[in-house]
Design the sequence.
């Protein structure tokens, strides 16, 4: 099939499509990607949403937290992914410091992301604290995905990456924040590392899709960090993570073979030269 015909047949995933999926009970599959080559495979494999997560700070750049990644770096990852993707919706994380406490800076950052990457939406972390930024970004016609529960950009406030909203007060605030974001007009919310029953309650009460990570099965979809589920990153093993491959060992094995072949003179052979 020619690329042109294949492209014509691809129905792009939009915010509207995600809403319809929730209504008919079809689960939404979401993964992160940060570069052209892997995003191309992820899209071809049928993923619904690709998140260019600020987890790029961890898996691409080796930082301990997501805080150091900059707006320009997120834009670089975002534009690389957008160039690869035909069907999936591409959502880009707004990095720490680009929207908190200043809704004018938030809209400037969001417009930069949308203009320079041509992605489909942005995601930001938090509830009542950032709703002014959410409102201003939405007023520019930019679709917004929320993120509640464990919000890694606030790690210095919380001090740990343990399960959130186990206590009644925090659970109550999470539900209030979810309603607030829905009323503001976000098209979906990620719930990270919270009790499954609480996530299920939010998903059943809200009309927008709720995507979980470490939030159990009672939500409208799931998201994982690509490098974690492919087993490239072996240092991170939370209970919620299912590894679908062991790429760390596979890549190490392949590279080890290459090193041996170069050292022994086996590579390149007579067919591998001009
Ligand atoms: O940055 C990220 O990868 C995320 C997911 C964990 C949801 O925000």
Sequence:
């Amino acid at each position: 099939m020619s690329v042109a015909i294949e492209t014509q047949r691809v129905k792009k995933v939009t915010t509207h499509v995600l809403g319809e999926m929730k209504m008919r009970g079809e689960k939404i599959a979401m993964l992160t990607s940060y570069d052209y080559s892997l995003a191309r495979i992820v899209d071809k494999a049928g993923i619904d949403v690709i998140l260019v997560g600020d987890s790029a700070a961890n898996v691409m750049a080796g930082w301990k937290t997501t805080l150091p990644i900059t707006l320009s770096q997120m834009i670089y990852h975002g534009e690389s992914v957008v160039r690869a993707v035909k069907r999936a919706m591409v959502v880009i994380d707004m990095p720490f410091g680009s929207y908190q406490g200043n809704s004018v800076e938030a809209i400037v950052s969001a417009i930069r992301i949308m203009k320079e990457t041509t992605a489909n939406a942005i995601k930001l972390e938090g509830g009542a604290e950032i709703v002014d930024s959410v409102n201003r970004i939405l007023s520019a016609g930019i679709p917004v995905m929320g993120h509640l529960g464990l919000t890694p950009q606030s790690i210095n406030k919380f001090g740990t990456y343990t399960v959130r909203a186990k206590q009644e007060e925090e659970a109550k605030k999470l539900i209030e924040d979810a309603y607030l974001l829905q009323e503001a007009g976000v098209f979906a919310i990620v719930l990270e590392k919270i009790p499954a029953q609480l996530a299920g309650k939010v998903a059943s009460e809200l009309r927008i899709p709720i995507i979980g990570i470490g939030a159990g099965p009672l939500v409208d979809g799931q998201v994982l960090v690509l490098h974690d589920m492919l087993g490239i990153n072996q240092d991170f093993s939370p209970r919620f993570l299912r590894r679908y491959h062991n790429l760390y060992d596979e890549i190490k094995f392949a590279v080890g073979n290459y090193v041996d072949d170069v050292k022994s003179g086996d590579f390149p052979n007579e067919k591998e030269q001009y």
The chain is about 45% helix and 15% strand. Strands lie at 28-32, 49-52, 89-93, 121-123, 144-149, 188-192, 210-213, 221-224. The first strand starts at residue 28 and ends at 32. Residues 32, 51, 53-55, 93, 147, 190, 192, 213, 223, 225 surround 3-methyl-2-oxobutanoic acid (CB under 6 Å).
